[in-house]
Specification:
There is one protein chain. This protein is of the alpha+beta class. The chain folds into 2 domains: 310 residues, Naphthalene 1,2-dioxygenase Alpha Subunit, Chain A, domain 1; 102 residues, Rieske Iron-sulfur Protein (3-layer Sandwich). It contains 14 helices and 24 strands. Strands 13, 14, 15, 16, 17, 18, 19, 20 and 24 form a 9-stranded antiparallel beta sheet that branches. Strands 6-5-4-7 form a 4-stranded antiparallel beta sheet, with no helix packed on it. Helix 3 crosses helix 13. The two termini are 35 Å apart. It binds FE2/S2 (inorganic) cluster and fe (ii) ion. The site of fe (ii) ion has 5 residues, from loops.
Length: 459
């Protein structure tokens, strides 16, 4: 596959068409591993999963198993979970606490700082000549702790995570800042849910980028009412006053669906349960407006950080990562977030709600998985893959400099208040995907000309 063919041949955004090959083709999948997952910043885990020295959590970056751990001095590391001697998976647990990682195959052992500290028969078999300082665990090239969330990249040439995020930080922050508007302060609630779905990883990635069109899939859930107050999540009259927006950051590939409330409106009391729960959220909303000012009007619902991390910022508040497992399978991991300082009763209430809503047992996520699973299978055949998917919806309705009652939102916006739905965010995801597949350097990636007909990002 010639690199230059991605944008013109397979991802044709001037027509709004994308070839099914990018979802089902083995060669394209292999190139994605090199060009996306070995270069981009990827979400690895949360610092609250490893609060103490020696704590570790085994995560994934693309197809690679990695160890997120805190060393004896408290520093956080991410290592490739593969022994330097013969490649054995050094740590086969999901999480825990350890002074050293000892390889089960021949017994090399590594400190929590990654250094090779133990080699059986070092004197006898290696004649004390093995240079242990050169054979520590492989470290990621770059690592950052962004408001408690740990991100890493294998590429030393990648820009800083802040540059990689660009203007999208305004929107991602709603997931990692406190519900009351404070800076950071979240923690992971309970364990991580992991499950596999027989579809390409880009099906969930595009869905969480902003597929507002698939509400029909969740109709039964809405009728049953698994929302936070026992009613459907969309059954909140206050939100009828809000502008519903698709917001995409074009030169970064990140996108979100958000509500923007009018200045005069108070935020909906989203969680009505016991008085402890409802009072807590009411106080948080008031505090958030005080701390964030006009930005307190923005309610980020769902979004995607390119390429494979998605978030729901409040209903429920979760993180998902779409780990590719071949072109035809995705392993989904879902983390659940709460404010560390929230009362236990609030955390217990949210745990019940999150499980009811998300994950393999959650009623809403089950609907989505059915769609991705059958869509993928029905797109694989030699005949099916000849026919492109359609991504025309809302083309030409993008607003470059969106402003509402004095608040200017960064990114390119489609106003869904009248339009109801658009595929603006999905096009943004695939525009960035094609750029990554074509560009050989970060200089190219960070200075992308915008294809004809696509408005540039707001400055
Ligand atoms: S593979 Fe790990 S010690 Fe040999
Ligand atoms: Fe959905």
């Amino acid at each position: 596959m010639a690199a230059a063919g991605y944008r013109r041949g397979l991802v044709d955004l001037s027509k709004g068409q994308i070839s099914r090959e990018i979802f089902v083709n083995d060669e394209i999948y292999a190139q994605e591993q090199e060009r996306l997952f070995a270069r981009a910043w990827l979400f690895v885990g949360h610092e609250s999963q490893i609060p103490n020295p020696g704590d570790f959590f085994v995560s994934c970056m693309g197809e690679e198993s990695v160890i997120l751990c805190r060393d004896r001095t408290g520093q956080i590391h991410v290592f490739l979970n593969s022994c330097r001697h013969r490649g054995m998976k050094v740590c086969r647990y999901d999480e825990g606490n350890t002074p050293v990682f000892t390889c089960p195959y021949h017994g090399w052992s590594y400190g929590t700082d990654g250094k090779l500290v133990g080699v059986p028969y070092f004197r006898e078999a290696y004649h004390s000549k093995l240079d242990r300082s050169q054979w520590g665990l492989v470290k990621v090239a770059q690592l950052t702790n962004y408001k408690g969330a740990i991100w890493a990249s294998w590429d030393p040439a990648a820009p800083s995570f802040a540059e990689y995020l660009g203007d999208f930080a305004h929107y991602l922050n709603q997931t990692f800042d406190g519900w009351d508007g404070s800076d950071g302060g979240t923690e992971i609630l309970g364990g991580i849910q992991k499950w596999r779905v027989p579809c390409n990883w880009k099906f969930p990635a595009e869905n969480f980028s902003g597929d507002s069109y698939h509400n029909i899939s969740h109709r039964s859930v809405d009728i049953v009412g698994v929302g936070p107050s026992g009613s459907g999540r969309r059954d909140m009259p206050e939100l009828n006053l809000a502008q519903k927006l698709h917001i995409a950051v074009p030169d970064r590939g990140h996108q979100t669906t958000a509500y923007l409330l009018p200045q005069a409106a108070s935020l909906p009391p989203a969680y009505q349960h016991s008085s402890v729960v409802s009072d807590y959220f009411r106080e948080c909303e008031a505090a958030r407006h005080r701390q964030r000012g006009d930005w307190g009007r923005l309610i980020t619902l769902v979004g995607e950080v390119f390429p494979s991390m998605a978030f729901l910022a409040r209903q429920p508040r979760t993180i998902a990562v779409w780990h590719p497992r071949g072109p035809h399978e995705t392993e989904i991991w879902r983390w659940f977030l709460v404010d560390k300082a929230a009362p236990q009763e609030v955390k217990d209430f949210l745990r019940d709600y999150y499980i009811r809503y998300s994950g393999p047992a959650g009623m809403t996520e089950q609907d989505d998985m059915e769609n991705w699973n059958y869509a993928h299978a029905a797109s694989r055949g030699v005949i099916a893959r000849r026919f492109a998917y359609n991504y025309e919806q809302g083309k030409g309705t993008e607003i470059e400099h969106y402003e509402h009652e004095g608040l200017r939102l960064p990114g390119v916006v489609v106003d869904l208040t009248q339009a109801k739905s658009s595929e603006h965010n999905l096009r943004n995801l695939y525009r960035r995907w094609a750029q990554f597949m074509e560009a050989d350097s970060w200089d190219d990636l960070m200075a992308q000309p915008h294809p004809a007909g696509v408005p540039q990002a707001a400055e």
